Amino acid sequence: DTGVSQNPRHKITKRGQNVTFRCDPISEHNRLYWYRQTLGQGPEFLTYFQNEAQLEKSRLLSDRFSAERPKGSFSTLEIQRTEQGDSAMYLCASSLGGLAYGYTFGSGTRLTVV
Amino acid sequence: TQLLEQSPQFLSIQEGENLTVYCNSSSVFSSLQWYRQEPGEGPVLLVTVVTGGEVKKLKRLTFQFGDARKDSSLHITAAQPGDTGLYLCAGGSYSGGGADGLTFGKGTHLIIQP
């Protein structure tokens, strides 16, 4: 098992463009999470999937953000009409389920909006 | 909104010294986790505690969950340069609304000087 894989590792985009990130979780993990981390801050929760169902979305997730997890496997996070404030590290994590289990995080996608 | 306050925010000590970092909240958590994060990488799980008063040891690291499940501490004995990193605490609770995402503190930046 190669852990949680995120692609791309880095993305530089112009303001107003759309970007899409991919996360491949650990295959046995049915829960998948997206977090955003800015400099000097801890990760902030964005959204959570159990299998293919998106069960929770943070108020941080504006209408420009959408996430999918087709067939309960990999997930994508799309940001439309990017803004400079979207610049951050986007982290994906997966878990076997429940708060007694820890999360396994990917290495993240660093987004820079210029 | 559940908030986790970590202290100190920054800590720089000499190799061989002992240290304690703290994670405090006014909220009760069902689970509290500690992660270590290196620059440009995702957080890596160190420990999960779920029972009030629980103590877990991981080599030179000792983790304690407060009796009231509102706070936690991480103690490192004989710190080594390899312990350098950002230490994050994260709490989760079964709020009854299906919420499953962890809330992270801002982290403690630890530097161990040789």
Describe the structure.
The complex is a heterodimer of chains A (about 110) and B (about 110). Chain A has about 110 residues and is mainly β. In chain A, strands 2, 4, 5, 6, 9, 10 and 11 form a seven-stranded mixed β-sheet that branches. The model of chain A has no long low-confidence stretch (mean pLDDT about 95). The radius of gyration of chain A is 13 Å and the shape is globular. Chain A contains no helices and eleven strands. The relative contact order of chain A is 0.33. In chain A, strand 5 and strand 6 form a beta hairpin. Chain B has about 110 residues and is mainly beta. In chain B, about 0% of the residues lie in helices and about 50% in strands. Chain B contains no helices and eleven strands. The model of chain B has no long low-confidence stretch (mean pLDDT about 90). Chains A and B meet through strand 4, strand 5 and strand 10 of A and strand 4, strand 5, strand 9 and strand 10 of B.
Name the helicity range of chain B.
under 10%
**Unreliable segments of 5+ consecutive residues of chain B:** none
Globular, elongated, flat, extended or rod-shaped: what is the shape of chain B? Answer: globular
Largest interface: A-B, 29 and 28 residues
Characterize the largest beta sheet of chain A: strand count, sense, and whether it forms a barrel.
Answer: 7 strands, mixed
Count the beta strands of chain A: 11
Helical amount among residues of chain A, as a percent range?
Answer: under 10%
Through-space gap between termini of chain B = 40 Å
Taken in chain order, the helices and strands of chain B follow as EEEEEEEEEEE
H/E series of chain A: EEEEEEEEEEE
Tally of separate helices of chain B: 0
Shape assignment of chain A:
globular
What average pLDDT do the residues of chain A reach? 93
Main β-sheet of chain B, in a few words? 6 strands, mixed
Give the radius of gyration of chain B.
14 Å
Rg over C-alpha atoms of chain A, rounded to the nearest angstrom: 13 Å
User: Which structural category do the helix and sheet elements of chain A fall into?
Assistant: mainly beta
Number of strands of chain B: 11
Beta-strand content estimate of chain A: over 45%
Oligomer: heterodimer
* Distance between the first and last residues' Cα of chain A: 36 Å
